[in-house]
Amino acid sequence: MEHVLHMAKGGGETSYAKNSWLQRRALLETTPLLDKAVREVYMALSHPTMTVCDLGCSSSENTLFFVSKVIEAICCHRRELGASTKVELQFFLSDLPVNDFNHLFLSLRGFKESIAVGHEGDTLPPFYITGLPGSCYRRLFPDKSVHLFHSSYSLHWHSQFLDGLEGNPNEGNIYIAKNTPPYVVKLYQELFQKDFLLFLKLRYEELVFGGQMLLIFLGRKNEDAYSGELNLVYGLLAKSIQFLVEEGLVGKEKLDSFNLPIYRPSVDEVKTVVKQSGLFDINKIELFEHNWDPYDYSKSDHVDDPLQSGMNVAKCLRAVMEPLFGIHFGESVLDALFNKYAHNVAEHLEREKTKYSIIVLSLKK
Predict the structure, then answer these.
(1) What is the reported pLDDT for 121?
(2) E strands within the chain?
(3) Pairing label, strands 355-364, 281-291
(4) Which residue of 150, 251, 270, 291 is surrounded by the most CB atoms within 10 Å?
(5) Beta carbons of 363 and 213 less than 8 angstroms apart
(6) Which residues of the chain have pLDDT under 50?
(7) What sign does the dihedral 236-238-240-246 (CA atoms) show?
(8) Which residues pair with 130 in a beta bridge?
(9) How far apart are alpha carbons 80 and 74 in whole angstroms?
């Protein structure tokens, strides 16, 4: 996983940098919780350096948006208190080694200029930004050295591909579907529990006492692992791959042997693992929803332009899945695959408007 999982690189039309508005909306939605966590951590500082890490930073400017929100929260809080105590901010932007760190850091100069203009009149705290290649399922920092961890749209990814799937028991599917055997569902669930528990233990060791985490990841509204909008998202994607199989562009064994290394838990599943760890207090856990189309802000039950929305959804998912799918199915079929997927999504949205479920979890050590 560490050597193959990354978002679509660069700044082209199918890149993650150009197609990550869905993830930006989650950051906007959770800004009040981030502001609260930053203020509380800042008030509890015992020395003048505050260390902050964004886990799964990827290559879009969303991670720099997160950095800007931390700086903004510090500036606002200091202004309200009339504080003159010096504080420095050390940011670590962390992702797997294959992440496009070059594209990200080429944006830094413009970011620093824009944040200076945006806070004209404020005394900005000195801040330093460093890249940190590595998996969030491994130790990244010394003991008790980090004040705040943030992670958005990362923790639904497994640390590895599923084991124990000899004979392709999930034939024709790439995720949990109605005909997925129960023991395959259990493998998904057990790997999520194992990974998340490990993540919590690692971050507990790295956080200072009183340190906090704000975690945002895909989830589901109910306890039935067979139901949910993400099952439908990936079901339509499997249907699109099946079309390529029928056209002779992809071998059937390629479809049958592929299972996405993703699991979207329920709120109760997340709570259970946190309580099992016994390491953190839950400040808040909640679930919110966004339309599949990241540019559709309407609250109506009707999609105005299903064709355009289908293309928007396909671009968003391609930016995330393209490298993984290119390795397994071949880069030559990606255009045909995601064109068919856009068509399938448009047909679905014409019948029914559907939303993603996103879990936000705020924890304190």
Answers:
(1) 59
(2) 49-55, 88-95, 127-133, 146-152, 207-218, 281-291, 355-364
(3) antiparallel
(4) 150
(5) yes
(6) 8-9
(7) negative
(8) 92
(9) 10
